[in-house]
């Protein structure tokens, strides 16, 4: 039961809650347009409308229509959801980790190297995503592959640079055990390895950044539903029990949240035990 709570229920609850506002903002009329386009595929006159709905999804996901202060708050909320989702899985594999938060040094490291670092990366990435909006004009493999590659590459580069920068700041402040900036640079490789195999809190930070890509995968999934008749037929048939016709975005969100959380949990458990 503890496994299910930490690895599935908490991540699903957090990610699902984060997407609830997206469903509400699109509205019932938007959901009708979405279902119509999926039902008829993109070869119909509804294509121009579905592009508008997907554009609204994009704007709601990435805060493009919220103003500066609204965007800052949205990134704070997204960062919190991503970190807590991965941290829930991490605490199952590393018993007693939460007890360490009573330590000033540990809390400092988590807040400044963790939360603040992840916030900055997600802020920069979400500021960049609107420039990629044109890639959703057509669901071709080349455009999707380019988008994913750009997103993953930028996330990886930003994570490495920010991890190095925060280590240098901690060294200057006397908060780390490093003896020089050179030793910090040499340790970057080890930090990345332990992060990738989910053996340190940097793994929480790294995978939290990757979880922030969730809206990109969701929008790609919607675009594939609209553009691929065979794909949409299979998904619609599978999702009928979730009242897909009347609430397509809700059904897609529920399915995608469950699958994403399961894959995330299994991936992190696999790298931890390997």
Task: Please name the defining characteristics of this protein.
0% strand, mainly alpha, single chain, 274 residues
Question: What does this protein look like?
Answer:
It is globular and about 65 Å long. The protein has one domain (2-273). It is 79% helix and 0% strand. By secondary structure, the protein is mostly helical. The mean pLDDT is 77. The protein has helices spanning 2-40, 47-62, 67-93, 104-128, 141-172, 181-196, 201-211, 214-227, 229-239, 248-273.
In short:
This protein has 274 residues and is an all-alpha fold. 79% of the residues lie in helices and 0% in strands. The two termini are 23 Å apart.
Per DSSP, the total helix count is: 10
Low-confidence segments, given as residue ranges, are none
Report the order of strands and helices.
HHHHHHHHHH
Radius of gyration: 20 Å
What's the story with the biggest beta sheet? none
Mean pLDDT: 77
Q: What is this structure's SSE topology?
A:
Blueprint: H1 2-40, H2 47-62, H3 67-93, H4 104-128, H5 141-172, H6 181-196, H7 201-211, H8 214-227, H9 229-239, H10 248-273
Helix pairs in contact: 1-2, 1-3, 1-10, 2-8, 3-4, 3-7, 3-10, 4-5, 4-7, 5-6, 6-7, 8-9
């Amino acid at each position: 039961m503890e496994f299910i709570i930490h690895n599935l229920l908490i991540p699903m609850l957090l990610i699902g809650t984060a997407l609830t506002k997206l469903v509400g903002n699109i509205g019932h009329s938007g959901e009708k347009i979405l279902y119509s386009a999926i039902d008829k595929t993109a070869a119909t006159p509804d294509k121009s409308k579905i592009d508008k709905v997907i554009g609204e999804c994009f704007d709601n996901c990435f805060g493009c229509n919220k103003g500066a202060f609204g965007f800052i708050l949205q990134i704070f909320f997204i960062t919190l959801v991503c970190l807590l989702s991965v941290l829930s899985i991490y605490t199952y594999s590393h018993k007693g980790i939460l007890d360490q938060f009573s330590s000033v040094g540990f809390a400092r490291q988590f807040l400044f190297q963790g939360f603040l670092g992840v916030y900055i990366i997600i802020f920069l990435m979400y500021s960049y995503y609107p420039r990629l909006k044109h890639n959703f004009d057509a669901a071709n493999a080349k455009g999707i592959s380019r988008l994913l590659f750009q997103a993953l590459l930028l996330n990886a580069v930003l994570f490495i640079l920010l991890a190095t920068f925060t280590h240098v700041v901690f060294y200057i402040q006397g908060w780390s055990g490093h003896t020089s900036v050179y030793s910090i640079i040499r340790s970057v490789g080890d930090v990345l390895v332990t992060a990738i195999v989910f053996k340190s809190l940097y793994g929480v930070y790294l995978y939290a950044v990757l979880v922030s890509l969730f809206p990109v995968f969701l929008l790609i999934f919607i675009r594939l539903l609209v553009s691929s008749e065979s794909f949409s037929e299979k998904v619609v048939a599978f999702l009928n029990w979730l009242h897909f016709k009347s609430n397509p975005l809700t059904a897609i969100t529920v399915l995608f949240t469950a699958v994403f959380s399961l894959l995330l949990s299994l991936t992190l458990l696999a790298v931890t035990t390997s």
